[in-house]
Backbone:
């Protein structure tokens, strides 16, 4: 098994972790950075008209192989909670990548789309529940409720 932390080791926010076995790949979170490289609060407005390749080259999008292409071999994305630094860039991912999320977190994301003018829509969510194992490819995942400032937050 390979674990790749694409973002989130040297900064807070913009979390993106990839787990890969011989036959399966999953992503844990696909978040927006909190700070720019100069240490100031990150604002996506100055980047919103750039292509995926330009966003990757500027370090805004993590360079996850096949995450944006039509024939993605990623088996799933798991969203841990409703803070933008954990889900805020997921709308760039291939729409065929299945998403697992807590049901209340999904409701919060739908409200965020309305009130914060975001585009993070999940057409066919797969809901998980605390302490109930679920499978994505080779991986068996157990969600644990976490004490966090976001309601319905999970550790896995």
Residues:
């Amino acid at each position: 098994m390979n674990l790749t932390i694409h973002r989130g080791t040297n900064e807070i926010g913009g979390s993106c972790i990839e787990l890969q076995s011989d036959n399966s790949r999953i992503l844990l979170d696909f978040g927006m950075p909190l700070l720019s490289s100069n240490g100031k609060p990150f604002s996506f407005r100055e980047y919103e008209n750039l292509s995926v390749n330009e966003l990757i080259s500027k370090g805004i999008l993590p360079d996850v192989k096949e995450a944006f292409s039509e024939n993605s071999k990623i088996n799933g994305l798991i969203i841990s909670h409703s803070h933008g630094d954990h889900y805020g860039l997921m709308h760039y991912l291939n729409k065929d990548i299945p998403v697992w999320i807590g049901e209340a977190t999904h409701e919060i994301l739908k409200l965020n789309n309305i009130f914060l003018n975001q585009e993070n829509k999940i057409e066919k969510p797969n809901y998980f529940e605390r302490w109930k194992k679920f499978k994505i490819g080779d991986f068996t995942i157990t969600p644990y409720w976490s004490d966090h400032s976001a309601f319905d937050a999970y550790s896995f």
Notes: The mean pLDDT is 91.
